[in-house]
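> Could you send the E3 ubiquitin-protein ligase NRDP1 prediction when you get a chance?

Sure thing. Input:
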Amino acid sequence: MGYDIERFVGYVNEGLLCSICRDVLEEPLQAPCEHAFCSACIHGWLGRHGSCPEDRQGIDVSLLRPLYRYMKNDLNRLQLHCKNREYGCEMVCSLESIDRHERECEYSQIPCSNTGCTVQVERRNLEGHLAVCEYRSRECPNGCGYTILSAEDTQHNCVAELRTELELLRSEMICRVEEAKHEMESRLDSQRRHMVQKESILQNEIEELKSQLSRVMSDVRSLMAAERQHRQELEQAELEKREL
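Output:
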């Protein structure tokens, strides 16, 4: 939808009106046939139709282009009233700067910033409303440090609130202790499994070394037996030599 033509000061050229909503162009786009439309209007129209609403020529969304520069300049120079005119704002400014003004306008209706409050107030009256809002929060004057809403003043009990806070802290501490305990147990289990695995590997290595040592001892005994046999043979040969 475009800008309400009733908001504008003076004459508005027909070429600056949307061919669909007949209001002043907002975020304008132009078709190849040079008819201009508000962006929202033409996209909505082409979602149901496939042609220009003025001359029925076929239009594809990809063919839409920004407004000619001179038309854009004419559009931006138009003067119009702030949308908050009915609330008392008397500002008249160019279409080019109206959005910036309305974002900061003191007469704009804005929501109360207090959680739970649904009141809409003028920006200029927000501070006064916050001072008396039933949903405003403040710290307990009795020193318990609890933040309370004005609507809860009659129900606030420092001892009860502190007891609740203590219970919450105790529950949180128990949860943290349990989490730390589970984490420590998990780490110990992991280390235990690692040690068992390491012990098994070492045991296997020991058994392998024992097996190797047994083979070496067997080889040594065989060598010693062979040496004794060889020595006996030498001694026998020496005796035979002497007899000869």
